[in-house]
Amino acid sequence: MALPRLLTAMDSTGESQTASVRQSEPGLGEEVMDFAAQNRDEAALPGNCNAASTHAAADFSAPTETDRTEEGWQISQSLRAKKKQAKERKFQQGGDFSAGSRPTLDNQPKRRGRPTRRRPPALPKDDLKVVFRPHQGLPLKNVTTQAISDAIVEACQGKVRWDQFILRIRPGSNIALASTPDTTVAMAMRGVTSLNINGRPHPVNVYVTAGEGTKKGVIHGIEPHTPSETIKASIRFRTQSVTLVDARMLGDSQSAVLTFFGDILPRYVYYRGGEKECIPFRNTVQFCRACGAVGHRTDVCPQPDSPVCHTCGMRNPEVNHNCTPTCAICTGNHITGDRNCLKRLKPIRKQAAKPPKKPHKPAPRWFQSEEEESEWEYGRGGTRKSRSRTRTPSKNRAVETGQPGQRHPKSTSTPRAISQDNPNAQALPRSKPPGACPAHSNPQADAVSYAQAVSPTTKDKPVTPTITEHPEYKRVVAENRQLRTELQEVKSRMARLESLLNQSSNTQSPASTPVVSQPVAQPVATQPPQTPPIAFLVQQIQLVFAKLGQMERTISDLSQAQNPRKRSCQSPGAPTRQPKESVITDSENTNHG
């Protein structure tokens, strides 16, 4: 069984650090790591070993055999004591911990996972990012951020204050990153060549990284060590809305990195007139050939004196040891950094796609139905596709002609405005969406689903009362009924008066009537009582017809106010049609007289 060993070592800066190393038994097929060989064979290494590897380690001191035995015993005893204490705590909480019992989630305490390091907050997006990459021998993970910040302020000779930038250390890459919104501060930091930390000067390389909103591409076949200005002057491309920001060579290779500002990377560029394919740039997984650590390069290695085997990655290897190639990045059977390594390049980060913007739909000049108008008022801007509430012309004609057989017999739609001429008419059915099967073939077609029942468009929409429920309509109907009754009485009285006049004219003749009694009896008995009632009745009839016309106009106005469909379907430029008023002609007056 492997036992952890705590070893104390001294790093290159003279500070002590503790590392946990796991020693394996020879019977498991693993090699026993001899940490004492580092001090014995520091000067020379075997021919098949060099200063490159794939694993990071510290410069350990060589423990003796007695220390190794005592240390292993103490570790084993402490582990046994911790297990015993944990078992006692479980028994105190309750539960069966026998060999045949199974642990339950209620009695068993939750197992805490390995603590993970919290990610720091994102730096300001629009700030300039200045990178400080120290040379070999300076591990930034052992230096505080305020010490590096003071060293930067001191190196800038008073041109920069500590409140003008944000400093962050990346221990994996062994670099320091300064974020600042001020261009003058970034320019002053670019001139720094050395940082004085703990009383010792440490040379650094300073450069400014490209911010967000840039794309990088790689072109091949460029002469090595070509200056950046020459590459930028020789590059042309045809992609619109893209600008070339920077160009540099990749080390001693024949490849150059082009940095473009824009959202699109050109597929082809023209270098001195020749067409070259521009491939998306992928960062290489960094590994150190000095200490074998993954995450930083050789020029910034904090422990450049750590002897490792370049082939198998073994630290402090023995002379003439047998090793097989092992990759530190993918653990494959090849040397670390080989071109055939599948994990040698980092994957490209895909930017999250932005949701498409909905096109602005202007308001129509008039609406085709009251449902469309109400939905526009609620901000929906269109008819619902799930359940269409628009009446078809065929059903409208069926209702207007009074043919109830053409209407849908199984309709669960809400009642709508009822016609004035037919107050007992049934509510109009709700039409189905196009392509739906008829109701007689699908018994579940008229069932209201749960989504339609709880829909905010049908649940929260205010119900408009019909015209028959309006109090003004009820008052007008009652008054109309009373006026009709009075009109019938007036007509009956007029008929009786006309019959009396006809009888009196037939009984009296000019020959038989005496001369003396005619001027006295006729004006007093017949003529004076008959003339005033006829004129009065004619005036009353005119007033009745005027009131009836006024009532008809009031009813039509109320019906139009309660039914916006008729108002919306009318053309904006069409003149309004006024109801016909009853006019009594002279012929009618003469007939009644």
TrEMBL record:
Ranges of compositional bias, category Low complexity: 512-528
Residue ranges, annotated region (Disordered): 1-48, 82-126, 349-446, 503-528, 556-593
Record's compositionally biased regions (Polar residues): 10-23, 411-425, 556-573, 584-593
Superkingdom: Eukaryota
Bias (Basic residues): 110-120, 349-363, 382-394
Name of the protein described by the UniProt record: CCHC-type domain-containing protein
Upper lineage: Eukaryota, Metazoa, Ecdysozoa, Arthropoda, Chelicerata
